[in-house]
Write a structure and sequence with these properties.
- The complex is a heterodimer of chains A (293) and B (314).
- Chain A contains eleven helices and two strands, in the order H-H-H-H-E-E-H-H-H-H-H-H-H.
- The longest helix of chain A has 33 residues.
- In chain A, 45% of the residues are buried.
- Helix content of chain A is 74%, strand content 2%.
- In chain A, helix 2 packs across helix 9.
- In chain A, strand 1 and strand 2 form a beta hairpin.
- By secondary structure, chain B is mostly helical.
- Helix content of chain B is 74%, strand content 4%.
- Chain B is built from 14 helices and four strands.
- In chain B, the strands form two sheets. A two-stranded antiparallel ribbon of chain B has the order 1-4. Chain B has a two-stranded antiparallel sheet with strand order 2-3.
- In chain B, helix 1 runs antiparallel to helix 7, helix 3 packs across helix 10 and helix 7 packs antiparallel against helix 10.
- The longest helix of chain B has 27 residues.
- Chain B is globular.
- The chains are: A mainly alpha (293), B mainly alpha (314).
- Chain A: Pfam families: BPD_transp_2 (PF02653).
- Chain A: Belongs to the binding-protein-dependent transport system permease family. LivHM subfamily.
- Chain A: One of its GO terms (cellular component) is plasma membrane.
Chain lengths: 293, 314
């Protein structure tokens, strides 16, 4: 294949990765921004989304599309409910202390991951895509479903943006993020906002997982990579800045494919992790984020 | 006085118990003592200075790999390999400390976790030399050495046990002297309120760096001893999970207590050991333990005992 089409293919794959990564990282960023909680279990909530999607899809024996769209609705709801419950039962009791919540979410990581291992088992299992349609380009065929994922991610992003910036709910969330105590003084039920945000962050990860699971299979260890990548994206984009998160996810998603072509994937990971750690040390507000107040 | 008696008593009990233990537990306890040294190093930073690192496995792995690879590829001998491993651990912790200590709080945890991940990936990247997950097994030439006229055979379980106990006693002594002395008081002051300590005229950055280097060096020593004694180095020792294990041992036993990490290591090791006989999902215990500890016993076992009954406990 010539260089041009090859670059096009790499870009398409990069866009797919960026689409899923944006949704996942947005969930992490939302939780950190509003609650100041670093959710180490975020990757496992993503994994749970994929596993529940497999479970839902396998119950519908009709057309694969029925199972898929059922999973797209049910899986985020279940994952959101689990996140909601764990927020009420664990994080709230810790009073959102940064150190304790990190330790607790590490614990949640193991609990979710190992419970899935016990019930779902160590195998990777596929979910069939809702439709098969190959777009025949002059140089290569490309799966139409991949483009659907990218489009769906863009629609969801716009929806999140709309909720955050144009609705009363978004105003309440932004007020809580800006100044927790002042918001409380104005009668905003902080605790309900926190529980809602934690569930919403988990649901974003679950939706991302349901979208990707027809392309990559559901497996109990699939949560680690999205977690580390989301951390990288959220740090680069500035902790708690949504616009920065989207830009950083595009950057990471696109460059990841291209860097991996020229270097070995491990070396690419070493360099990017090291760079991100240094960004956090020397420019903690991120590359695109606003200066911390 | 009773403080010294308690520590000597614990060490004496560990010495005596080797005569009654069956083979399996004899070996297990040797491992646990080395892991306890690692956790004690971790406690130096987390328990006393209040810095939560999520990448301590890199110091353990630095000692493990440098000592192990020196013994594997060169013929410098075991004692020298052990020393080189410790020195490299100290150097690494100095470099990491200078960079990572510019951050505080959540950022410090994430930065250390990322450096830990970089260390792990580096080991995997140089898989030609480190053999990655499969690891290196020490040759027979590195299984025994002569030191000061003594012949030490590392395949001998009794000698291995007492060597580990000796290292544990040494670590206990160092930590005891440091935390009971003026430096320890400053470190605890930093943990409780760093700004106030700074205002009192202490160079808090230097104190934190000192604590991190001591912590990293002790962890590296544990790693070097582990690799040389059990004749195996592998990349699993560098994963995030190993960093979390040190945190868990310390939390369970009691962060900021001298004997806590030892107690935590013994209990957790056996808890995991027993569960793994029944299920492959033994890490579930780790998760549940972390959540329960942080929710109900944030001070750990010895921390709670100290608070309720024995205020003199170090």
């Amino acid at each position: 294949m010539a260089f041009g089409p090859f670059l096009l293919l790499a870009t398409l794959e990069g866009l797919l990765q960026a689409a899923v990564l944006t949704l996942t990282a947005l969930g992490l960023s939302l939780v950190f921004g509003v609650m100041r909680v670093v959710n180490v279990a975020h990757g496992e909530l993503y994994m749970l989304g994929a596993v529940v999607a497999w479970w839902v899809a396998s119950m519908f024996s009709l057309h694969p599309a029925v199972g898929f769209f059922a999973a797209l609705v049910i899986s985020p709801l279940i994952v959101g409910a689990i996140a909601f419950a764990s927020e009420r039962l664990i994080l709230k009791r810790l009073n959102y202390d940064p150190e304790s919540t990190i330790v607790a979410t590490i614990g949640m990581l193991y609990i979710i991951q190992q419970t899935v291992l016990l019930t779902y088992g160590p195998d990777a299992r596929p979910v069939s895509a809702p439709f098969y349609y190959r777009i025949q380009l002059p140089w290569f065929g490309y799966s139409g479903y991949n483009l659907f994922v990218i489009a769906a991610a863009i629609v969801l992003l716009l929806a999140v943006w709309f909720v955050l910036s144009r609705t009363r709910l978004g105003l309440i969330m932004r007020a809580t993020q800006f100044d927790r105590e002042m918001a409380q003084a104005f009668g905003i039920p902080i605790e309900r906002v926190y529980a809602f945000v934690f569930a919403a962050g988990a649901m974003l990860a679950a939706v991302a997982a349901v979208l990707i699971v027809p392309i990559r299979q559901a497996h109990y260890l699939m949560g680690l990579d999205p977690l580390l990548l989301s951390f990288i994206v959220v740090i680069l984009g500035g902790l708690g800045s949504l616009r920065g998160t989207v830009i950083a996810a595009l950057l990471i998603g696109l460059s990841d494919g291209i860097i991996s072509v020229f270097f070995s994937p491990t070396l690419a990971k070493i360099i990017s992790t090291l760079l991100v750690a240094l960004v956090l040390v020397f420019k903690p507000e991120g590359l695109f984020g606003a200066k911390a107040r | 006085m009773r403080v010294i008696a308690l520590h000597v008593g614990v060490l004496a009990a560990l010495f005596l118990v080797q005569f009654v233990l069956p083979d399996y537990h004899h070996l297990a306890l040797t491992r646990v003592m080395l892991l306890a040294i690692y956790a004690m190093g971790y406690n130096m930073l987390f328990g006393y200075t209040g810095l939560l690192s999520l990448g301590h496995a890199m110091f353990f792995a630095a000692g493990l790999y440098v000592a192990g690879m020196t013994a594997y590829y060169t013929d410098l001998g075991v004692p020298l390999a052990f020393l080189i491993g410790i020195c490299c651990g100290a150097a690494l912790s100095l470099v990491i400390g200078v960079i990572a200590l510019r951050t505080t709080g959540v950022a410090f945890m994430i930065v250390t976790m990322m450096f830990g991940q970089v260390a792990y990936l580096t080991i995997t990247y140089f898989t030609d030399y480190t053999r990655g997950e499969e690891g290196l097994t020490m040759p027979t030439s590195a299984r025994s050495f002569d030191l000061l006229g003594l012949h030490v055979d590392l395949t001998n379980a009794v000698q291995r046990y007492n060597l580990a106990l000796g290292l544990l006693a040494l670590t206990l002594l160092v930590i005891f002297v440091v935390v009971r002395g003026p430096i320890g008081r400053v470190l605890i002051a930093i943990r409780e309120n760093e700004t106030r300590t700074l205002m009192l005229g202490f160079d808090t950055f230097r104190m934190k760096l000192g604590a991190l280097v001591l912590s990293g060096t002790i962890s590296a020593m544990a790693g070097a001893a582990y690799g040389l004694m059990f004749a195996y180095v592998g990349s699993t020792f560098a994963t995030i999970q190993y960093s979390i294990e040190a945190l868990l041992f310390t939390l369970l036993g009691g962060a900021g207590t001298v004997l806590g990490p030892l107690l935590g290591s013994i209990l957790m090791f056996y808890m995991i050991d027993i569960t793994s006989e029944y299920t492959q999902a033994y890490l579930l215990v780790t998760g549940v333990a972390l959540v329960v500890l942080v929710l109900f016993f944030p001070k750990g076992i010895l921390g709670t005992i100290r608070e309720r009954w024995l205020p003199w406990l170090p």
